[in-house]
Design a protein that fits this description.
With 120 residues, the protein is α/β, with parallel strands linked by helices. The chain has helices spanning 35-47, 65-80, 92-100, 113-119; strands at residues 19-25, 50-56, 84-88, 108-110.
Length: 120
């Protein structure tokens, strides 16, 4: 093992510049008990410093206030490094939760990936 905990023959990943787009697809429901898992997933993506983080939530049926808070935190962090975060294809139920929490005033929402690509 090396000092960084990897075997000496493990490949090293280095970023040569900003990654243009990272697309995540959330396929689970996210409630308070899942907030740490969602936060870890978003942390990993944000560490790659993308210019644009697209989060496809079309298969995410439930997202409660705790999970929405995690999204808002991720939005703030990615904005600090010059990137953007967009929720793609939120269900009617998720849109209502976003409106209820007023997160829809902060987070970028897109009906489909096609809409995001057309705007870029």
């Amino acid at each position: 093992m090396t000092g960084n905990g990897r075997p000496p023959d493990a490949p090293t990943v280095e970023s040569v510049g900003p990654i243009p787009v990272i697309q995540l697809m959330l396929v689970d429901d996210y409630k308070a008990a899942d907030a740490d898992r969602l936060s870890a997933q978003l942390d990993e993506a944000i560490r790659m410093r993308p210019r644009q983080l697209l989060i496809d939530v079309s298969r995410c049926r439930v997202m409660d206030v705790s999970a929405i808070d995690v999204l808002l935190d991720a939005h703030r962090r990615i904005r600090r490094i010059g990137g953007s975060l967009t929720l793609v294809s939120p269900s009617g139920r998720l849109r209502r939760n976003l409106t209820f929490t007023r997160a829809d005033l902060v987070l970028d929402l897109a009906a489909t990936l096609s809409v995001v690509r057309a705007a870029s």
